[in-house]
Design goal:
Layout: H1 2-27, H2 30-48, H3 54-60, H4 68-89, H5 95-118, H6 121-133, H7 137-147, H8 150-176, E1 182-184, E2 187-189, H9 194-213, H10 219-226, H11 231-245, H12 252-259, H13 262-273, H14 280-286, H15 289-310, H16 312-316
Antiparallel strand pairs: 1-2
Helix pairs in contact: 1-11, 2-7, 2-8, 2-9, 3-4, 4-6, 5-6, 5-9, 7-8
Keywords: Membrane, Transmembrane, Transmembrane helix
Membrane topology: Multi-pass membrane protein
Organism: Panicum virgatum (Blackwell switchgrass)
């Protein structure tokens, strides 16, 4: 009877997941997915559009050409912090984080473009930091995993990767078409400032598009409702879950305690591995050597690629 109860619990979970997937199909909004992909594309364009001209910008403000590495990297440093609060914010909404992201990126690019006329390297760096604080890539990823139906999730994930790669390619290419120079009133428009002005306009258009067409998912309301099940259903599920923890053979647990204490240590370690990490040190201890090796490889890959991209304009000069 315990076995049949456990089996029925699994079937019930499967049926529930299928019904939730059908509900997801009904409430799926294609334009909202497109807005998340466009946000990803524009952010990567914003990151790399300054790469060909940052060294000239730094020299015009009285700094060394190699300061371009700091200007480009400051956006990624700010993204470390923005990923934290955007991830927490996406627990309650997707629309408001995207609005905030667009505003921050608009202001950051505005400061980046005005730094030339203000002759201030500090304004330039603050603008890039604001752009990094507006990184909503964590929201874009989570929207795909939470709000896209299962049958379309693979295509949406492929679209996310393609949008990222296309943004990385279009950014420097777009900067190549901005090799012009003119002046409107007291504002200078040249190859250094035009990337900032172009991205200002792009984020302003995106903000308007987002405000008019984005549809907030309904699963936030469903989550609140699902957290208040009926008492009878709760009691049945509680009894079935208690059956999952009981051994199939009564003497098995006693024999394991008498024969092997090492297994107990491994069981405690495995139970601890499922607990959430409370600090960086505890998170580091939970990683296996294989995971650590993969993280080092990933770090070195990004490290080498960013060095090559950041200093490419200096090398080609």
């Amino acid at each position: 009877m315990q076995f049949l109860g456990q089996h029925s619990l699994i079937v019930q979970e499967d049926a529930q997941s299928e019904s939730e997937d059908l509900v997801g199909d009904q409430n799926y909004h294609f334009m909202s997915l497109m807005l998340n992909l466009v946000n990803t594309f524009l952010y990567l364009v914003n990151t790399y559009i300054i790469v060909p001209t940052t060294d000239d910008y730094a020299v015009s403000l009285g700094a060394a050409a190699t300061v371009c590495g700091i200007i480009i990297g400051s956006m990624a440093v700010a993204q470390v912090f923005s990923s934290v609060y955007f991830s927490a914010w996406s627990n309650r909404s997707y629309f408001r984080p995207l609005i905030f992201s667009s505003i921050m990126l608009f202001l950051g690019n505005l400061l980046y473009a005005l730094a030339y006329d203000l002759n201030s390297l500090m304004v330039l760096l603050i603008g890039r930091l604001l752009c990094g604080l507006g990184s909503a890539r964590a929201v874009n990823r989570r929207y795909i995993s939470d709000c896209v139906p299962l049958k379309m999730r693979l295509q949406a994930s492929a679209g996310f990767v393609s949008a990222s790669a296309l943004g990385m390619a279009c950014g420097p290419a777009l900067a190549g078409f901005l090799q012009t120079k003119f002046k409107i009133y007291s504002l200078n428009f040249n190859q250094s400032t035009l990337p900032g002005w172009v991205m200002c306009i792009a984020w302003l258009i995106y903000l308007l598009w987002l405000w008019l067409t984005f549809k907030e998912p309904e699963h936030f309301i469903k989550t609140v409702v699902s957290e208040q099940p009926s008492e009878s259903g709760h009691n049945v599920n509680a009894n079935l879950e208690e059956g999952l923890a009981q051994p199939l053979l009564i003497g098995t647990e006693r024999r394991q305690d008498e024969t092997s204490e090492d297994n107990d240590d491994s069981e405690v370690a495995s139970e601890n591995s499922h607990e959430p990490a409370t600090s960086i040190a505890s998170a580091y201890r939970l990683q296996t050597p294989s995971v650590k090796a993969q993280l080092v490889i990933y770090f070195m890959l990004k490290y080498a690629m960013e060095i090559l991209l950041s200093e490419s304009s200096v090398v080609t000069t």
